[in-house]
Amino acid sequence: MFKRFLKWTGIVLATLIVLAAILVGTALLRPNRAEVNPALKLETWDAVNDGNHNAFTNMIKWNGALYLVYVSSPYHFGSSDSRLYLMRSKDGHQWEKIARLVAAGKDIRDPKLAVIDGKLFLYALINVAFTVKPYQTVYAVSKDGKTWTPFADVEPSGWLFWSPQQAKDGTYYVAAYWHEHGKSALLKSTHGRKWEIVSIIHDGDRNDETDIEFLPDGRLISTARLEVSDSYFGNPKGSTLISVSNPPFDKWTPTARSTVTRLDGPNLFRYNGRVYAVGRYQPDHGGPFTWQGSLFARKRTSLFLVEEDGLTRLSDLPSAGDTSYAGVGVEGYQVIISYYTSNIRKDYPWILGMMLPTAVRIAKVDLPSLEALAKAKSGPKVE
Asked: What is the mean pLDDT of residues 163-171?
């Protein structure tokens, strides 16, 4: 009886190993199927591709140059070996590394750049867990991009910052989410060091990464990543919450829950009165392995039109696996976008991409062609 049990146990284990090998082999060999809209005029190229896991980019234009920050780490997960690198370029093609920043034996991620009072501010999130649970925003300041102050904690503690934006009156606003998840807020500051809470954007749904952009009429629009649960399989109710707020931004009105994607790593920007987003898109929906946010699904970095009634996907960028977390620099009729991605010739599931090398890429997008796509696709949302 015991021998029979061992025999069948061995058969089951062998079958599982074979199935796992088939799945991994398929993922490694599967060609990329990102859908780059042929009407979108763009160029893309690598900025960093050195065999490390390079991720979580952000970019800004300052003093006539582009400044790009990214995280270099062994993998997507938390690591005390993670480093922030800051690079500078005049054209987005030729980059020079000008600074390296660490967090004293802790994992550091999700850097964001802002120009405040003529200085370059760098905000980032500190984490000590392998499974990634940031608990504090820190900041450093530089007058030249090369020499930085030591990292200091942002006040109030526990709020995890996204991208600061400046209003016409000079006030800086930032969306942030609570370190225990489930709540996002709008904060403001005049000098970038101490911030005060203005309003709660959303409470519930395991709300985290939230970004804002000003509308032409002075209102704010926000996108919020709603995870709903922390399951590795994601959640069928995962979505993107869109909300708007009138000055003085003390109250938010939710206007849509888009299931086009759960917008991870969002970066919102504006052109000719329309708001766009660069963020993560999941092409597969449905089933326990492809619920929104599943580690086992394929991912993209994509461009979206953001309207009060929802998201419209306009085009993918060449991307796959572990990807997204973009930086944006609008220059006249072009937008230069930084993002990271796994091997763009393959189509790894997210979990596999998390453990393999990733590259930082640059995309230069013609804005009139993006606007034409937005005009063609704008209308009632079908999700």
From this structure: 96
Instruction: Output the 3-class SS for 40-86.
Output: CCEEEEEEECCCCEEEEEEEEEECCEEEEEEEEECCCCCCCCCEEEE
Tell me: the pLDDT tens digits for 313-368? 999 999 999 999 999 999 899 999 999 999 999 999 999 999 999 999 999 999 99
Asked if 293 and 229 count as a contact pair (C-beta separation under 8 A), the reply is no
H-assigned helices in the chain:
2-29, 350-355, 367-377
pTM for the structure as a whole: 0.93
| Residue in this structure with the two tokens 């850097």, named with its chain if needed | 111
Q: Which amino acid is at 22?
A: I
In 181-204, which positions are buried (b, 16+ CB within 10 angstroms) versus exposed (e)?
bebbbbbbbeebeebeebeebbee
For residue range 78-114, what is the model confidence (pLDDT) as tens digits?
999 999 999 999 999 999 999 999 999 999 999 999 9
Q: What is the pLDDT of residue 214?
A: 98
User: In whole numbers, what is the pLDDT of the chain averaged over residues?
Assistant: 93
Neighbouring residues of 215: CB distance < 8 A, sequence distance ≥ 6: 221, 244, 270, 275
Q: What is the C-alpha separation between 214 and 244, in angstroms, rounded?
A: 10
Report the 10 Å Cβ neighbour count for 112: 23
Residue 382 has a pLDDT of 62
CA-CA distance, 11 to 15, in Å (whole number)? Answer: 6
Sheet arrangement for strand 65-73: 53-62, 65-73, 83-89, 96-101
Contacts of 187-194 with C-beta under 8 Å, sequence gap 24+, read 187/156, 187/159, 187/161, 188/249, 189/164, 191/116, 191/117, 192/114, 192/116, 192/117, 192/121, 192/139, 192/141, 192/164, 193/139, 193/152, 193/154, 193/155, 194/154, 194/155
Longest dimension (CA), the chain: 80
Q: How far is CA 125 from the centre of its chain?
A: 13
Q: How far apart are CA 328 and CA 373, in angstroms?
A: 19
List all residues 6 or more positions away from 337 whose beta carbon is below 8 Å from its beta carbon. 59, 278, 317, 326, 327, 328, 329, 362, 363, 364, 365
For the purposes of burial, counting CB atoms within 10 Å of the CB of 135, is it exposed (0-12), middle (13-18) or buried (19 or more)?
Answer: middle
Unique residue bearing structure tokens 């006539």 = 64
